[in-house]
Amino acid sequence: MAQKSSEPLDTELVDLPQALRWREWMARVEAVLFSSSEPVGRDVLARVVGRDCALDLVIEDVSAELAGRPYEIARTAGGWQFRTRPQHADAIRTARQEGDPTRDLTQSETLVLTIIAYMQPVTRSAISRMTGREVSRDLIARLHRQALIARGPRSPEPGAPYTYVTTPGFLVQFGLETLRDLPELEALEDAGLLKPTADLALDLPIVSEDG
């Protein structure tokens, strides 16, 4: 266990030569990322390096040193996180005696999750209209239990039903930094996964100007 120190952390390291100062910043950033099970934001990493530290370059240098290692630094959910490289997934699942995680989401769940990601905040009834079939509360609950979606604001339509939105866990699971990194909607239409955008727009609930 690391020993606690009453002295504040020296982030500027002005007494060190530039090369050693950079190496220390790299080590601190790597240690913080390694110790966290969640993506770490820029504001957190900035606490352990100097004011003039080019944080993106530090992370690039740490990533370069991980070349050939079975893990890497990924940019996801607005921060950075260590993750195992995809080619080692089978070995990890075998060691843990786990099944294929891609089977966790059914085709219907994937479709509903896709609609929520692109159309959020969106109600269950609107999703049902988009898919052309009833979306059950059980399906929504399964996505919620996996921390992929959460309740959003209530809709202004009659009954004020809840809307649904994606979560930071959704970004992490699919390796996205922000929702802006989602593929173009037209690509999903071309693949036959969604109805054309114009049709989807017609299906969306109409909100009055005063709503």
How would you describe this protein?
There is one protein chain. With 211 residues, the protein is an alpha+beta fold. It has helices at 18-35, 42-45, 55-65, 89-96, 107-119, 124-131, 137-145, 168-173, 185-190, 197-203, and strands at residues 40-41, 71-76, 79-84, 122-123, 149-154, 162-166. A hairpin with a 2-residue loop joins β2 and β3. α1 packs across α3. The chain is elongated and about 65 Å long. The N and C termini lie far apart (56 Å).
Class per helix and strand makeup: alpha+beta
Percentage of residues in strands: 5-15%
**What is the string of helix and strand elements?**
HEHHEEHHEHHEEHHH
Number of helices: 10
Helix content, binned percent? 40-55%
Q: Strands of the largest sheet, in order across it?
A: 1-3-2
Net shape: elongated
Radius of gyration of CA atoms, rounded to a whole number: 22 Å
Low-confidence stretches: 197-211
Main beta sheet: 3 strands, antiparallel
Distance between the termini: 56 Å
**Count of individual beta strands:** 6
Quote the average pLDDT. 81
What are its keywords?
3-stranded antiparallel beta sheet; disordered C terminus; alpha+beta; 6 strands
State the gist of this model.
With 211 residues, this protein is an alpha+beta fold. Helices cover 43% and strands 13% of the residues. The longest helix is centred in the N-terminal third of the chain and has 18 residues.
